[in-house]
Automatic annotation (TrEMBL):
Its cofactor is heme b. It is a multi-pass membrane protein. One of its GO terms (cellular component) is mitochondrial inner membrane. The keyword Cell inner membrane does not apply. This is Cytochrome c oxidase assembly protein COX15.
Amino acid sequence: MGNARKLTGAVWGLLSRTRVVSRHGVCNAPAGSSQRISAFQYQKQQFFGALEKQTSGLQFTRKASNTATTSIPLFQGSIGKAETAKLLVEKGVKAQKQVGYWLFGCSAWVFSMVIIGGVTRLTRSGLSMTDWNFLGGFPPTDSSKWEAEFEKYKASPEYKRVNKGMSIEDFKFIYWIEYGHRMWGRGLGVFFTGPFIYFLSKGYITRQLALRLGLLFGLGIGQGFVGWWMVKSGLEEPESPYRQPKVSAYRLASHLMAAFGIFSGLFWTALSVVRPESHYQGVDFVRGSAKLRKIAIPIAVLVGLTAASGAFVAGNDAGHAFNTFPLMGDTWIPDGLLELQPWSRNFFENTATVQLDHRILALTTLTSVVAMSLLARKLTLEPHIRRLINLTLGVSVLQVTLGISTLLLYVPVSLGAAHQAGALSLFASVVALLHALRKPSPAALRTLVKPL
Ligand code: HEM
């Protein structure tokens, strides 16, 4: 009782002489306003109002600590639903674990799809199947069916211009790779929908999660169509008789970027299922994370841009030119960077420009990640966030090393595939870092500020 009196007295004193944080900045408290309890509630409302509305947790915490946070106790009463972190899965921890594992499994499946897709491209297998249907169908089962399939391939520009005289055994090899890639994608459809329906029927999945997963499922189906749209571009006769048939670099980049998008959507959702709330030991940790988030978001964008530029390197076969590093041939900056018209085409279609772009973006990414990890040393951060920063740094160094080796060795399948896997691993570590840096819910933040 005595404590309660001290508390309201302190609040009352503060309200009459200090300024409090509001959503719009700093305003004067209503000195002498009606009852003590309403003044206290006013203070609380301003305090949490600022927390909820501020997009920058940093701004909030700085203002709060400049004012009355240390002396004003926080109201520990019932917490409104809107203030707590939203659970995506209902019916307890067991359900949460099951759904979480399933979604991590789906992300890993998409990851493997990206690698298989890379191997398909690097082994030039992607154009071996000259038609497509939604369910995929069965592969040839006897020699006459293989012959028929091979005849269809023989009519394609790739056979006529690149693989003329290929044996049926070699054809079977590239066919199986492409068939495997397509069927692995359909397998993911089954692995996704089966448990989804089961978890829905058990009532584990909230409306919000169902909508999010529905959207990701739609993107997954769309990705199948984008894949075929990409392959179709490689089955067309090239405009010039001297050019090799290959898929459009734009379509290849769309297919790869869509895969990155689907992967990160699934991975982020899986993380949100198992970790609905960010964990912080104190307000200083929230402040440190808010600072780091401001750097980590642009880095995520940079990694995405570097990956997209890599897709254009792959799509233009630019890895088979300028196989030197750091120089490009004999110079730092090769000639003819803007020779295509209009100039913007050069960034997507000109071998030299596309490769230079990719190098610059990759090295900028690495430098930014190094800078982030140096800056992070000065910040108060949770140990698991530090681990994620170290992971991101390690994967960036590995990825740049892989990229340079891929280039110097004229894109062998193993290194090309490893470089593709490295790109997605780097993206995944940045996504995990951003997830760990999420703002805490108002309710969680409230528990971090010590009561009197
Ligand atoms: C942050 C660093 C990097 C990222 C995120 C990244 C990402 C990518 C991605 C996503 C691809 C497309 C892969 C594919 O479709 O198969 C790619 C291709 C490529 N990258 Fe990088 N890359 C990075 C650094 C580098 C560096 C430093 C070099 C060399 C200077 C390099 C050289 C290449 C080459 C030659 C290819 C084409 C490989 C192929 O044809 O399969 N990369 N990169």
